[in-house]
Structure formats: C-alpha cells, structure tokens
Specification:
The chain has helices spanning about 40-45, 65, 70-80, 95-105, 160-165, 170-175, 215-220, 235-245, 250-255, 275-280; strands spanning about 1-10, 20-25, 30-35, 55-60, 85-90, 115, 120-125, 130-135, 145-150, 180, 190, 200-205, 225-230, 260-265, 290, 295-300, 305-310. The chain is α/β, with parallel strands linked by helices. It has two domains: about 1-150 and about 200-310, Ribonuclease Z/Hydroxyacylglutathione hydrolase-like (Metallo-beta-lactamase, Chain A, 4-Layer Sandwich), CATH 3.60.15; about 160-195, no CATH class. The longest helix is centred in the first third of the chain and has 10 residues, at about 70-80. The chain binds zinc ion (2 copies). One zinc ion binds near residues 11 and 21.
Length: about 325
Amino acid sequence: MIEIIFLGSGGSIPTEKRNQPAIAIRYEGWVLLFDAGEDVQRQYEKAQLGLNKKMSIFVSHLHADHVLGLPGLLLRFSLLGRIKPLNIYGPKELIDYVKVSQSTINLGTTFETAVHAISPGEIFNEKDLTVRAFEVDHRGFALGYEIAWARSTGRFLPSKAKDHGVPEGPLWKTLASGKSIELEDGTMVSPKDVTDPSPPPLKIVYSGDSRPCEELRKAATGADVLICEAMYTSEHAILAEERGHSTAAAVANLAKESGVKLLVLTHYSPRYYDGEEVIGEALPVFSNSVLARDLMRIQVGKDGSAVIVKPPGL
Ligand SMILES: [Zn+2]
Ligand SMILES: [Zn+2]
C-alpha cells in the first residue's frame, strides 16, 4: 500500500490551519518527501513518519515556501541522532542552500547527505518504483514529479474471462484477486489469462508551483492521483497568470482532459479561509476532486483504489 500524507497544504504564507507545502509518500518503509515548507519537522513528527527511515527529499523549486523547512528538518534529524543517509533532489541551487543549512547546525549533521542537482528526466528506478522530474511553467526553473510503480498484473478484463469460459460470479473475483482457478472440466485459468498484459504503471503526479502547461498535462495523462497546486480561484485568474500559478478551475479542466482518476488540490492561498471556494470551483468541472488538508492521508492500493482519511475534526 502507498500512503500520501499532506504535511502542508497552504501556499506562500502559513495560516492557522495550513502549513507551507510538504507532501510525504510512504511506501514499504521508505519516505519520499516532496517539498519542505516552513515547520515541516513538526508536521513530520505529528504524522509519525519515523526518524531512521530510508528517505528521499524532492524539491520542486527554490521559492522560500517550498524549502524553509529543510534546515529545521536536518537539525531535528541530527539532534535526534539519525544515522541513515539522506538523498535530496532538486534544482542546482539546492546544493548551496543545503550546505549553508548544514553549517548552521553546530556539530554538523549525524548522517550523510547527498544533494543531487537534477534536470528533467528520470531520476532513479529502484525495484518497481521510478521517479521522474519534468519542467513546469512557473517563475524561474521549477520541477514537477511523476512517481510511478510498475504493476505486475493488469486490470481484470471480463471479456477475456468470458473467452476462457469462466462464468461471471465468484470465480471472477478470485481471478481478479490474483489467484488461479480450475473450471469444472479441469481447465486451469490463471490471472495472467484474464488481465491486461501490459498494465500501465500506478502513477502519482505532483505539479509543484505551475501554470497549467503541456509538460504537466503529459505527466498527468492517466494518473491515478494528480496533486496540483490551486493557488487561486478564477476570480483571480489574472493574478494566477502573472505569478505563474493555477486556478482551481484550470487544474480541474486539466485533470478532466488528462483522464486523471483523483485530483487533489493543494497549495491554496491564505486568502481562502478554509478553501471551500477552491474545491467549490473544481467539483463542477471534475467531480473526483478533493481539497488537501494538513495531515490528510490518501491510501492508494496497487489497483489504483484510493481511500481518503481526513484528519480529526474535519
Ligand atoms: Zn509556492
Ligand atoms: Zn513558487
């Protein structure tokens, strides 16, 4: 199971209810952190993500609201005695930023930190997981990320089950769950016989800060979950354009046109008290939209199913 945890869902300035942007993806004991807004360390603790986990941090761009929390996180890990190495990926300016951050920690960090200056393209491929960066349209160099897991078996295809003479009913369920079955005449049917032979990967896409753009559209195509900034509503479309951001309506349209399964709107402006205007604008365009809240979790199954666990009080 893959779990997405929103540590910060606000854009620019933190509010009473929203921290600056940071999203953790937890997968088989590995924490992948996307952006590290101010005070991410406290949210990280609240989400109980663990001190000595395998961890990779991905930064979308060097605007302060996306990196102010990085020095604090490094300090916290050092004070608590982390020993596992840490990999940080992002634009090349990140190298100096991390160096300066480390120099503010008195005794230095207790763990190795490798900072990787990346360009658009594949960053790594480890077992079934591939992470790829793509350039988005913001102010200055900014990246979005595509996180994809290869699937061993594809979708269950009822037409193929029928072709193999499997009657509709519990046997379909057994095959869909990945187990072989035996028909009355002794014929064995395996899940491979009745599933998509080249299944598309399970895909989560994070836009970072961006105007709607072609690269984002390409990455989002067929995504199981698209996490998009929605700094403004259409009322402020001109501001969005000037500042290199998106409106809720624009990202909902992009999600609809790209065949996305679930859209999560995040990084919304402090001018929206609880974000109702933001989600209110997206839903009529794309009904499978949800508004990110701090500490909200989305559990994504390998079949692409998504369960949203709202934080207490919401
Ligand atoms: Zn931002
Ligand atoms: Zn920005």
